[in-house]
Amino acid sequence: MTGYCPFQVLTAREVRCELGKGSFSPKDSEEPWACAGCSIPRVLANRPCIYLEPVKHFALRGKSITFFRCTMFGVVIDEPFRLCPQCVGNEPAPRAH
User: Fold this and answer.
1) Sheet holding 15-17: strands in order across?
2) Is 0.70 surpassed by the pTM of this model?
3) Overall domain count for the chain
4) By the 8 A CB rule, do 41 and 31 touch?
5) Residue 3, domain member (yes or no)
């Protein structure tokens, strides 16, 4: 992961993903299946549409699934940057202060 993640909680012994309800060691957080490979911080930093919700599931140790759900149209999207800019309902989220 690069940058700030609003779903990441750090303690002395573990890293917790509040979105995916997963806990792992700080070393594991550097793996692509955990924080290091997560696209959510990058997408959120680019002010996605207000209808876009991130979803993350940790199925098994060493495996995760990340996607985004459009609440306006009820579709699931892997990479919003491909579809959302062309959407008629695209309404960017307000800038964080």
Assistant:
1) 8-10, 15-17, 22-24
2) yes
3) 1
4) no
5) no
Reported for 91-96, long-range contacts at CB under 8 A and 24+ positions apart, including other chains, are 91/49, 91/50, 91/51, 92/47, 92/48, 92/49, 92/50, 93/47, 93/48, 93/49, 93/50, 94/47, 95/47
For residue 23, give its domain range: 8-86
Residue 1 belongs to some domain of the structure = no
User: Cα(85)–Cα(41) distance, rounded to whole angstroms?
Assistant: 18
User: Which amino acid is present at 84?
Assistant: C
Greater pLDDT, 60 or 28:
28
Within-domain flag for 36: yes
Distance from C-alpha of 67 to C-alpha of 79, rounded to nearest angstrom: 7
Among 25, 42, 43, which residue's Cα sits nearest to residue 34?
25
Better pLDDT: 91 or 20: 20
Q: What is the pLDDT of residues 40-77, one digit of tens each?
A: 998 888 877 888 899 999 987 788 999 999 988 898 98
